[in-house]
């Protein structure tokens, strides 16, 4: 709002004083300490616009890649994770799936994706259980502050929430709202670990191992995961393989055999889809990173 300078004008012996107009500054939600919004955005103009809209109430920390975002989330707990999924145009579903597999990092953080209306429509079913609100671009950008405020206001963690760690390279967690769900998740992971070298880990087989019906298994599984059982097991195999690559010197055929994958070409395809590189490059990059970190500590 433009501030007008005070001035006096005289008309027919009357004096009119034009006083400065002052805009009232909005108080941050929850007191003087601002909450943090983690913004995943690769366009500087959008990052500036979002920061400008939210700056009265929030400190905005901007990152440019999902790797940077989840690296930040592993060390910090922002109030909101605001992610522009248009960075991954036509592959928003893969980004949402990646968030789903790492949702343990968002237990105390509201997740708000910024996406196209088409993606919002196609991903509506997946988004319902995962997000605390979403921004359809560019139409909802004017309501961004209200959307963020609402998500922060209603975001709360239930006292009986239980985290069940999923072994593997990502070290993610399953968020369980009851002790019954946590027991189911632990039992499921034990069955998977005991039988991971088997190629056929069907719903019927796992349900039998858990002494429940396939229908009960599927219903209870959907309570703890937004993925299908098939996708969850596929991800579990790939992540366990990634961990074995780092922990052992086994040849690739032994690694994939240990996680129940028979096709080398299938493994390479799924591994590259998940990590962006081949198993060999992945292991080299991780080892090089560990060496660099050790050298930095020594210095």
From TrEMBL:
Residues 186-285 form the HTH araC/xylS-type domain. The keyword Cytoplasm does not apply. It comes from the Bacteria. Keywords: DNA-binding, Transcription, Transcription regulation. GO terms for molecular function: DNA-binding transcription factor activity; sequence-specific DNA binding. Gene3D superfamilies: 3.40.50.2300, Homeodomain-like. InterPro entries: CheY-like_superfamily, Homeodomain-like_sf, HTH_AraC, HTH_AraC-typ_CS. This is Helix-turn-helix domain-containing protein. It comes from Bacteroides cellulosilyticus.
């Amino acid at each position: 709002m433009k501030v007008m300078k005070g001035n006096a004008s005289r008309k027919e012996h009357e004096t009119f004083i034009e006083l400065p107009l002052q805009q009232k500054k909005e108080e941050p939600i929850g007191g003087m300490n601002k909450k943090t919004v983690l913004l995943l955005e690769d366009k500087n103009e959008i990052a500036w616009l979002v920061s400008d809209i939210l700056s009265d109430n929030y400190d905005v920390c901007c990152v440019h890649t999902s790797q940077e975002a989840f690296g930040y989330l592993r060390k910090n707990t922002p109030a909101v994770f605001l992610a522009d999924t248009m960075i991954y145009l036509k592959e928003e579903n893969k980004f949402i799936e990646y968030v789903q597999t790492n949702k343990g990092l968002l237990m105390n953080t509201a997740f708000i994706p910024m996406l196209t209306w088409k993606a919002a429509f196609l991903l509506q079913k997946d988004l319902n259980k995962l997000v605390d609100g979403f921004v359809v671009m560019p139409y909802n950008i004017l309501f961004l502050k209200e959307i963020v405020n609402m998500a922060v206001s209603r975001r709360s963690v239930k006292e009986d929430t239980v985290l069940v760690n999923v072994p593997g390279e990502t070290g993610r967690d399953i968020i369980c709202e009851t002790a019954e769900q946590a027991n189911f998740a632990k039992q499921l992971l034990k069955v998977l670990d005991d039988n991971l070298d088997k190629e056929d880990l069907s719903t019927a087989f796992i349900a039998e191992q858990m002494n429940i019906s396939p229908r009960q298994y599927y219903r209870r599984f959907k309570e703890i995961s937004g993925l299908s059982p098939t996708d969850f097991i596929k991800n579990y195999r790939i992540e366990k393989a990634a961990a074995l690559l780092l922990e052992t010197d086994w040849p690739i055929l032994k690694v994939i055999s240990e996680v129940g994958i028979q096709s080398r070409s299938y493994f390479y395809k799924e591994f590259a889809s998940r990590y962006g590189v081949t198993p060999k490059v992945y292991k080299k990059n991780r080892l090089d990173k560990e060496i660099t970190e050790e050298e930095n500590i020594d210095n």
